[in-house]
Amino acid sequence: MSTESWPPKLKEWVAKCLGQMTDANREEAQTELKQVIAESYANKTLWTTDWDGVQLKSLMPKPPPVLSTQSHLKRKLNESHSSSNKKTKKGSVSKAAAANALDPDDAAALNRRAARFQREHEIERQKSSRPFNNHTSSYPSPYANPQLYKSRSGTPATYDADNPDADPNVPNWDRFTIVGTSQEIFKDYLRLTSEPKPEQIRPYHVLQETLNQLKKRWREKATYNWICSQFKSLRQDLTVQRIKNEFTVTVYEIHARMALEVGDMVEYNQCQAMLRNLYELGIPGKVEEFTAYRILMLLHGRNRSDLNLYVGQLTEKQKADPAVRHALAVQRAIAMGNYHALFDLYMNAPNMGAYIMDHFIDRERIRALMVMTKAYRTLQLTFIQNELAFDTPAAAREFLVEHRAGFFTNPNAPDADAVLDCKPAGPQLAAVYEEKYRRVQIKGAV
């Protein structure tokens, strides 16, 4: 059961319970918490339960111990001692008071702590729904160091003047961010192994110029290895400075298209995964185009469960987009075994969908040939070329020979007149399919 499917009220209640836990009751409270959620999930009442009114027994304040009459009399006798012991008595009383203030069973302290956790949870939720009208994201940087980077106002990063009750041990990440100072347009990608230094990071306006120059170099036929290194460096500078806006989406979209064009599926899948997160944050971009690409990638991976789940979550706007309609038509053609429609869709794929289909079209050609060789005794090579979207009859012959199915009734005839002998070709095609295409390996899949 994923926490992403929990209702907001349940998430708030869990955060409140976690805030009330102490070392003394944590194990018992966590066990009871899991049991309550599991029972509600089993009863299908996650969305109907009034979580604000649910109270864990293990987190309820325990009644203070009742002093007996004898102990009360002893305390009175101790208070009647000489004044020389009063200072000692005051010291012990103050220590006892401090201990009581830190008592994990103190209901007031627990409520204050729970309220603080609830407030922090509310702030995080407001951040996630905040419009992206600037280039700096509200998410904490994994590289931030309060001792190296101060807030722009000069206030120490760990002090929150707007919320004096906030825990000083919880940094206010919004009060500081790393801002690069490097003016270099191009910079090779190097994996970070230490704290990033501002003089090695390019600021936002330099990164915008970098993207323009990279697009120009790509049109001038620069090598992909160099372009890829520059884009990874650009993405790294965006991540370090916590920049998540439309420019960030544009960078990942352009890099993904370039990766598709050269068949670099590792980088494409990394860009696709990041774009999915950025789109979920509400940042605008080419959502429908990359939705279609994701459907085709799931078809390539033959991941039916994820594909059905993803298609079921599409909005009416997305389904109305031509690229998404095309991807859904490809899904339908493969599911129904309609290879005639499939290869027609392959020849008319919008955007860069054909680059993804290239990765599984040979598999579908083998499946189509397995059906065709069962239905016919012989097949004209030109018919196979037209039906399975080969560029030339020679390309169709080469494909058949490569897959051990090059059996022709007239092997010495020109390609335009060659005829495939289906009876010996069928078993070979089935064997090749089992060996080569039954299992799918996708590099860099996320």
Specify the biggest β-sheet. 2 strands, antiparallel
Structural class: mainly alpha
Q: Which overall shape is indicated by the principal axes computed on the Cα atoms?
A: flat
Average pLDDT reading: 79
- The count of helical stretches stands at 19
Distance between the termini: 20 Å
Strand-residue proportion: under 5%
Radius of gyration: 33 Å
Share in helix: 55-70%
Adjacency order of strands in the biggest sheet: 1-2
Order of helices and strands: HHHHHHHHHHHHHHHHEHHEH
Which parts are unreliable, with pLDDT below 50 for 5 consecutive residues or more? 86-90, 93-102, 130-162
DSSP E strands, number: 2
Description of the structure:
The protein is mostly helical and 446 residues long. The protein has 19 helices and two strands. The protein has helices at 8-20, 26-42, 69-79, 86-101, 107-128, 204-219, 224-240, 246-262, 265-280, 287-301, 304-312, 316-320, 322-336, 339-347, 353-357, 361-375, 381-387, 393-402, 422-437; strands at residues 378-380, 419-421. A two-stranded antiparallel sheet has the order 1-2. The chain is flat. Residues 86-90, 93-102 and 130-162 have low confidence and may be disordered.
Which terms summarize this structure?
446 residues; 56% helix; mainly alpha; two-stranded antiparallel ribbon
SSE topology sketch:
Blueprint: H1 8-20, H2 26-42, H3 69-79, H4 86-101, H5 107-128, H6 204-219, H7 224-240, H8 246-262, H9 265-280, H10 287-301, H11 304-312, H12 316-320, H13 322-336, H14 339-347, H15 353-357, H16 361-375, E1 378-380, H17 381-387, H18 393-402, E2 419-421, H19 422-437
Antiparallel strand pairs: 1-2
